[in-house]
Design goal:
The chain has 21 helices and 20 strands. By secondary structure, the protein is of the alpha+beta class. The strands form six sheets. It has a six-stranded mixed β-sheet, with helices on both faces. The chain has a six-stranded mixed β-sheet with strand order 8-7-14-11-12-13. The longest helix has 21 residues. The protein starts with 7 loop residues before the first strand and ends in a 6-residue tail after the last helix.
Amino acid sequence: MANGYAGKILKVNLTKRETSTIETAQYEEFAGGVGIGAALFWDLAVVPGDWDLQDAFDPRNVVSLMTGPLAATGVPGAGRTSISGIAPEPFPTPLFHRTSLGGRFGTMLKQAGWDGVVVQGKADRPVWINILNDKVTIEDARSLWGVNTFETQDQILSMVSGRTRFGEEWQQVGDGYTTARPQIVCIGPVGESMSRVASLIHGSGVSARTGGFGGVLGSKNLKAISVIGTGSIKSADPKGVVDARIWHMQNFARGGGAAGASCCMPCVNPDRKRNSYYGGESMCADQYWFMGDQMRGADVAIKYGICTWCTKFGGAMNAQMPNAPAPFKGTVPMEPGMGWYIKYLYELGVLGPGKKIESHPLPMDQWDKLAFREAFCDAIARKIGIGADLAEGILEAAKKWGRLEEDMNSGALRLPAYGASWHHALPGVDWAYSYILMSGDPMWHGFFTSLSGGGGGGVGGGGGTTAEQLVQKIAAKMAPFSDDPLMLSNCWKGDEARKTGIYSDHKAKMVAWGRRFAGFYNESMSICDMMLPNFGGPSPDVEHRYYQVVTGSKKSLADTIEVGRKIWNMERAIRVMAGRHRDKEVFAPFMFMPGATFNLGMGGKPVYQDGQWSFENQNDLYLDKEGVEYFKTHYYKFEGWEEKTGWPTRKTLEGLGMKKVADVMNAKGRLGA
């Protein structure tokens, strides 16, 4: 068993009510997290060849909850759990997607002796999975069905370990003892109804929001997974882990966070702003789901298990968009969600009691009240009235109402691609391009702050650093592409945009490196990207150092980037088999209009123009359709994918040791020429 790994993966077949073990060593070439999750999906869902990968609620869908080898070793931020499978939220068709959650579940799963859980099939009645070290049982969950996520966890807690407090009483688990509570991932009533906007909830709100995986578990009649473990994970160099962590914290400590905030396990970044449930954490979109009395509104969403990201009632701030639809006078929320959209339609006069779009049972005149949020979740969970439409997702609802084309073009539906909410999509085009190359929000902040500067205090550029100094510093870290600082230019105007800027072969190289780095370190080593990377600081050296001291691997940074390329091609192969094609990798119309960018006051981006580097405030940046196609041609060529289709070629896959993948794709006519 390699250092950092528990050595085995739990496989649960709900249809047969069977559990079995997969040796992790079979999949270590894909690192962990989404890498192993994708490889498992390929073997268990694609290779059999008996379904078209289109229906996320098909029992043949395989959902993995995977950790990485750095979990449970003390590496800060490395305790995340990656969830992957065919997700129902992407529009217009379900797609292979990955999301993740923090908290304590991943660490506990490793301590129980498992690197992950992979679930297939469908139970004939509601069940939950109970993991006590190496003892696994499939339990009856009929008494939990219809129960909210807080009560579900409370009831399972009572069944597994009694009513204890952290650290105060020892509990016997098999041959071991622990003072910890079981860690639970579960769904609420919204997930039980197989809604496309259902999330997975852990603790008081640590959630895997995007993708709609709560609905997938609902379709499998799987209410929850609970785990408690008393073991440990071996690191190759335990002292090296401690030394790396001390060096990291002493030289690049994160901020202190909000008063009373807490961390995931194991982390040192107190960015979780709720503690209303045992050891609970919540942040990000949950804070904006109810404007005003925020946490009471967040409680409603979390208890119901609804995705607070895609259903938001507003964003952190408003974006200036000259063609924004009435009655919003040139502004829309930076990240408008379903809650905001139905308010917009109500103000427009097309949605409401007795209107073209009947709003029953929602009390639209109480939109800004807590009671409305409760009615909103209840209607979606029970699929009554307008709730039946909303349960299918905002774009499916808009399509049914005949609003899709108009509201996508106006920007009222500010969703860049595949139905994913806007999230730092521009001006950092590496984030934007990831929207169309993946299946939704990349959720990766790697270059977001590092490439912000202009003296504006960004992580990368503040303190008077020049644009040229910044790009030289960061490019030098991007092995094996360190000789090309032009890949960091965000020039978007004129011929230079195609020669060296956002549509060039240089930018294709940057996007490729970012996807490979993120795929390995953030999505497979499962290091939280709110913690790392920080390319203006310790990254990528500190991530690579953590990887080496835990696993004992001698791989260079460039070697790990190559593993990231293998993971990225595994994901690509799955998406191609599900119907992905160049023609489908397109942005929503508003991305090509003034107002597409919202810069969050991060300072200018580095731009190379007329032979000079400078910082440019890019609040006015928007994309050019022909330029994006120009970029895609460069990108596919760089990745070794067929330029006409965007499909990986045999040469590329075999060069990555993926001949069997190429053979399957070829047999289905999906291999790039």
